[in-house]
Amino acid sequence: MLLHPADFPYFTFANLDRFNTLRHFVTCGNSAETDINLRSVGGAANRRRLAQTIGFEIDRLVTGEQTHSLNIAVVTSADVGRGSVDIDSRIPCTDALITNRRGLCLMVLTADCVPVLLYDPTTHSAAAIHAGWRGTANDIVGLSVKKMADEFGTKPENLMAAIGPCIGTCCFEVGDDVARHFSHWPDTILRHANWPKPHIDLVLANRLQLELAGVQASNIESSDECTKCGPHRLFSHRRNQTLGRIGTGIMLI
Ligand SMILES: [Zn+2]
After folding, report:
1. Which residues lie near ion ligand 1 (Cβ < 5 Å)?
2. Which domain range does residue 70 map to?
3. pTM
4. Please, what sign has the CA dihedral across residues 131, 134, 135, 137?
C-alpha cells in the first residue's frame, strides 16, 4: 500500500492506482494526530473529510450493516447515500457491496477483519467486501466474484483484487471454537508454529479463495500490515477494544 499523507491520510494499492477509471482508499491511523475514525455512530464529520479528500460527494457513499453474513448487495442508483452518515439507512444485513454504476462509493468498515476490494476493468464493475473470520471461513470473497460474474458478466481472470490491512497471523490467536472452522485448510493458514494456541492467516486465506475463484495471483495485492501490531497502529479491536473503524472504499468514475 502507498500512504498519501494528506490532511486526511489514506492508503491506496498500486494495482488499483493504475486505473484512472476509479478512486479507492484505505483510511489509516488512530493516533492522536490522525483521529480519522469512520465508525457509523460519531464518524459523520470524518466521513465528510474523507469524501472531500478523495473527491466525491458525501451523499454518494453507500455502506451496509455488516453482520458477518454472506449477503452480497447489488448496489444501484436507488441506493445512493444509504448509510453515508447514519446507521438507519444502511443496506441491512449485508457484508459485500457490488456495483457497475459510476459515482457510487462503496465502503466497508473494519478493525481487524479483512477489507477486500475488487475491480473488473473489462465490465467496469467493483466490489467492497467485509470478511471477518466467519466470512473468510465461508468464502465471501469467492461468492462475491461469482456474484459479479452472474450480475455483470465478470470473468474472474480479469479481476484486480486488493486485500487491505487486517489482524495478522502474528496476533490472530484463536480458540478451538474458531480453529475448527479452518481445520480442513492447509497448515499455512491454520498455523500452530511455536504458539500455544493456533493462529490464522486471514490474508492468505482470502488470497487462496480469490485464486480458487479464478482471480490471477499476479492480480492480487495485499497489505502486510497487522492492524494490531503494525507500524501505523491502525484501528484494532483486539488491541484496545476500539470502536474505531478503518474505511476501505472504491468508486467507479
Ligand atoms: Zn500483529
Report:
1. 168, 170-171, 226, 228-229
2. 2-166+203-252
3. 0.96
4. positive
Query: How close is the Cα of 230 to the center of ligand 1, in Å?
Result: 6
Residue 174 included in any domain:
no
Question: How many structural domains is the chain composed of?
Answer: 1
The whole-angstrom separation of Cα 106 and Cα 129 is 9
CA 196 to CA 193: how far, in whole Å?
9
What are the Cα distances from residue 182, in Å, to 13, 130, 139, 145? 28, 18, 11, 21
Residue 51 is inside which H or E element, if any? helix 44-54
Q: Is 107 inside any structural domain?
A: yes
Question: 169-222 pLDDT, tens per residue?
Answer: 999 999 999 999 999 998 889 998 889 999 999 999 999 999 999 999 999 999
- Tell me, in angstroms, the distance from the centre of ligand 1 to residue 94's CA: 28
Cα–Cα distance measured from residue 50 to residue 56, given in angstroms and rounded to the nearest whole number: 9
